[in-house]
Amino acid sequence: MPKRRTGARRSVLGSIGLWTLIGVFFLPFLFVFYYMVTTSFKSQIDIFSPEFKWVFVPTLENYAAVFQTGSFGEFTLNSMIIGVASVLVALVVGLPAAFVIARYKTRWIGSLVLSSRITPGITFLIPWFLIFSRIGWIDTYQALILMHVIVTLPFVTWLMISFFEDLPQELIDSGSVDGAGIARIFWSIVLPTTKGGIAAAAILAFIFSWNNFLFSVVIAGNSTRTLPVAVFQFMSYGSINWGAIAAAAVVMTLPVVVLSLFIQRHIVQGLAGGAVKG
Amino acid sequence: MATGTSTEVRAATGARASAPSNPGGRLGGFVDRHTRLVFAGPAVALILLILAFPIAYTLYLSLTQWTGSLTRDPQWVGLDNYVRIFTDDPRFWDAFGRTMAFTVGTVVVQTVLGVALAVLLHRELRLRGLLRSVMLMPMIATPVAIALIWRLMFQPDLGIFNQILNAFGLPGSTWLANEKLALPLLAVVDTWEWTPLIALITLAGLTALPAEPLEAAQIDRANAWQRFWYVTLPMVRPVIVVALVFRLIDAIKTFDIIFVMTQGGPGFATETLNLYIYNTAFQYQKLGYASALLIVFFALVFVLTGLTLSFRRARD
Question: Which residues numbered 143-182 in A keep a CB inside 8 Å of some CB on B?
Fold first, then answer.
């Protein structure tokens, strides 16, 4: 009996210790987001207070400032157009390629896709910037979409390879028995069966297009500026309005975080180039 | 809708059986015979267009001098740019050193912390799903937003870090404006952002491990540390190496957080190769020289990736 009680006590102590350690790790993760959200609801006076205000009267003035800075809706729309279009291109081109890599032992195509994932983004940027300048494509949607395909295509292809590899061979054979060609099998059997994976790949690719900064900061101009570039440039206008920047950061990050909740299981897999199934 | 589709399918296949020479059938036959070409051709063409072509163009530009106006033509200078990089450009070597320090430093720290976090979370745990979601947030949130918030936190006059120091009666720091602190602080932000990736990959690896070796070790009275070091760690090492390689590839290319938080400053204290190339091309508009730097950087990334992968193969 007494022995059992020490055992129980030890497990209570153990779980306190465990949760303390977990707390130490997770506090920084959570605090940055807490800081971002609370700052976005603080008045200028509270933000500039010499002590950190844990308690404050929330205000929407920062959000009002963001949306009144004219073109915020336009920037959001630009980000969405470029994101959706570059994901569509990646799906149309990447899905069949992933299928061939997965089912036809064409690893070299996989290596080609991987090498485009490894190559530093700036390697694409300088030559394409020059080409776009010469043909007058700077500050156009088609230029930005093409650049963003560099981001989306490897993500879609890599994630889908493992989904297509997991398909049972009988499923594909059942199509051949009915006399359907490979195109029809792909279209009416393979794609419907893997639509969950396709949705995950599309969402993940969209998130990375939405987050992209390097390509947009160089190629975008007044009429195609994406959200990250616009928010970054908030800082250049005279004195920095940190409240508005925090509010803009929240508005920019919120859709991404919400979207990521739907595809949790696939994010790690997508980031690790399909090498790991999370 | 569903029935409509299935009739269509039947109709299509029926038509095909009765009239094998219809155009759809011929096209289908072509696709069947050349599946690889038809399915993967567009992707290969697109990747070659966006990848190989710019690299070839950059190689050509790296042998030229092209400054300022884009309307002028590049001047052929042969290997001059490369000679200058390796013999007469201390700024390149400084940036190279910073890039290596930043990459190695962040990846080592992130691996240690990430594996520790994975081991901590690898058990029956309440709130496991929630903890997972929280860990995904730093790496999925827009880097520009994250970098701006960290920049605010490091502000000497109104940031949280000096507020905390002041609350304990300590003098504040200038943080990112301090030449010695700036690069390590960027490494902290990168670590905050990417430790979860290593943790989650390692956690997936731990979950997939067989239980028997650990049980055997337990019977042999190995303590918890011994079980981890001699049994668990060797088994998950391949997974950790995968995580490490992917982190390495991305860490060496870190751009967003550096550009947003310090833009390479103060002075050149946080100017990594990526930033140096960006500045050379888009700030100083020395496009020929930037192209040569780019080729060197590109080679460095590939050599480093290749080395890590072959090291991994040797270990396996």
Answer: 146, 149-150, 153, 157, 178-182
